[in-house]
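Let us practice reading a record.
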Amino acid sequence: QVQLVESGGGLVQPGGSLRLSCAASGSTGFTLNDYAVAWFRQVPGKNREGITCISTFDGELPFLDSATGRFTLSRDIAGNTVDLQMDNLAQNDTAKYYCAARTRPAYCGSAAFQYKSWGQGTQVTVSA
């Protein structure tokens, strides 16, 4: 089982940037090469929305059209982190952001039910 911890959320003005980080850890022999890691976000009263995912098999696979060109995913295999760089943020990007991981299969999926491992989430608030 993989453990995930998100960091980097906060308050930012419209047009600003934030970088979220997802730190992953597991038992002996753990490597992110064996996992697909995705970022989701959720606002109260709505389902979790898939943003993007990265895996050895898929590379980067974005799900959210509104994030294309603004959000960029990067993975550090040695450091066991998956970062989400978010630029040109808008008020409707306000949400709690979660990273999630799956293995067997380690392919990206856009639906929350496809992932068994989740972090606790980090709040992103975009406001003037």
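A brief commentary: DSSP finds no helices and eleven strands in the chain.
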